[in-house]
Structures are given as structure tokens and as C-alpha cells.
Amino acid sequence: MIYPWADEKPYYTYSTYFKRLFGRRIQKLSIDAGFTCPNRDGTKGIGGCYYCNNDAFNPSYCRPDKSITQQITDGIAFHSWRYRRVTRYLAYFQAFSNTYGSLSYLKRVYAEALSHPEVIGLVISTRPDCLPDETLDYLSELSKKNYIQVEIGIESCYDETLRKLNRGHSFAETVKALETLSRRRIPSGGHLIFGLPGETLDMMLNEAQIISQLPLTSIKLHQLQIIKGTAWAAEYSLHPDNFKLFERNEYADFVIRFIERLRPDMVVERLSAEAPPLMVVAPNWGLERADAFQQDIQKKMISLQTYQGKYFKFNEK
Ligand code: SF4
Known about the structure:
Elements: H1 14-22, E1 27-31, H2 68-80, E2 89-93, H3 103-114, E3 119-126, H4 133-143, E4 147-155, H5 159-165, H6 171-183, E5 188-194, H7 201-212, E6 218-223, E7 226-227, H8 231-238, H9 248-260, E8 267-270, E9 280-282, H10 290-303
Parallel strand pairs: 1-2, 2-3, 3-4, 4-5, 5-6, 6-8
Antiparallel strand pairs: 7-9
Helix pairs in contact: 7-9
The structure holds iron/sulfur cluster.
């Protein structure tokens, strides 16, 4: 079966999105440009979000003591054994909040990344409350000649949950940031975490409907993992029953139901979190890689004859 996103996969994958946009495979290269985060430096909070440990997802080639150019060169070498035919890259400003700095610093690091001959754009991960007008003006300017995507940590659509995570912003701020990016025609991305304290299955499934009404280009889905060195790792060691973490197969069933409710033209970039196993306190899903999990979900969806958007409905305004 060929779906609206013009291939046989049962949901609209990130690789399909880039093949449609650029006619080729594109690889993201993580960059750590030495940013911090207002939820760590005291501006919004200290200690950060209770689940956050940036070391859990920074690849080894990506370190702030190296120049941006060096990180790109090392990233290309790192990925070359696996993606031999990839010749174009997006610099992924991943660690902490990558618009949280002076405009002159942002210009310097973004320009250095874009000056690499194989880099055709940027993906910039940040918080919804870190997008002042002057930064947005600059990103709009850059997006006239380069692919620029801004990725927002949504995490949950519920303010009560956001307070429990110590996020230091509301869901309304996320909506405002996504609407502003959309008005400026800058593609956006979002993260959601499932299994957060206090959220029921119905609440989590309802988030598919909520985010589908937003001008969001792509979404990453993650199961909650308790990561070493975080505030929640300390709490988990004392009170594990305070957390209801997804088992692997239970999450697989959930993710399929979530995708069925998602707007058909929203790109699904990830289906699961993948911190290094030694960093994960719980849940223990063994050594299955996110790619293998994704392939299993695709097979299951095909055998169930289901697909993205099967149960999606536009909200009448
Ligand atoms: S998850 Fe993002 S916003 Fe929260 S503390 Fe970590 S870097 Fe800051």
C-alpha cells in the first residue's frame, strides 16, 4: 500500500520527509556548542528538569572543547561506516538549550556549521521560552538559504505534569513558540515523553490529538527512562513505586495507538528513547536499538493493517 507520504511505510518517517524535500538521504550530526540552559543556571531554575542528563544522549564525537568544524568532521567519520552513501548533513545543535546565548554567539556558531561544504542546514534544539524576536529574525533570515528546523522540548501537553518535571514553562508557551515558528515558515520539531508521573494512558493518547492541531512539522516520541545522575534516579532508588514505567511490549502497543491518532502529514522522527544502557537505571529493555524497535513497529502496523492518521480527526473550531 502507498500512503499519503508516498512510500510503503505505515507512518511518515523522517527519512521519507528528507527524501521528499532533498531527493536524497540526509544525516544529522550532533553538535555540543557549549550552551547551558535557563533551567540550570538559575534564570528559570537550578538543577534542571528532573529526568535530564545531557551526557545520556551526547555522542562521543560531540564535545564543547572541540570547534564546531571539528565536531562536524568527526561526526561525518563516525557515521561513515554505517551510512556510506550519505554526502549531505544537518548540523544538529543538540546539547542543552541551543538558542540560549547572545545573538553574536549564535551567529558565530551557526555560521561556522553552515560554512562546512557538506552541511545543508541546521536543526536547533531549544526550550519554547528561549526564542526572542531577534533570534527568530536571524533564523528567518538563515532559512531563506538553508534548511533550518527548530526543535522544541514539549515533553507533556499538561501543565500539571510540566510542574512535576520542573520544566519551568507552561504548555501555552510551547503553543506560542510553535505558532510563531509557523508564521515565520520555519519547520518545527517536538519531543514528547510517555510514562510521566500522574499521566494515564488516555491522557497520553489524547496528546496525539492535541499536538495534531498544532503547526508542528515533526515529532519524537520517547518512553520515560530513569537516567543515572538525575533527580529522578535519586527518587527512584528510594520510591520506585512512584513511577509507572512502560514495559517494552506495552510501549510498542501504545505507540501504535498513538500514531493511529496522529495527523497524517506530521513527520514521526523517533519512536523511542535510546540512552546508553549503562546510563539507564530503569526500565530495562535489554539491548534492542531504537532502529530495531522502529522496524518492529512498522512490521506490526503492516500486519495489523493500520497506519498513521487512521483515527485522526480535525477538531472543529
Ligand atoms: S531537559 Fe532541556 S530544559 Fe530541561 S534541564 Fe535539560 S537541557 Fe534544560
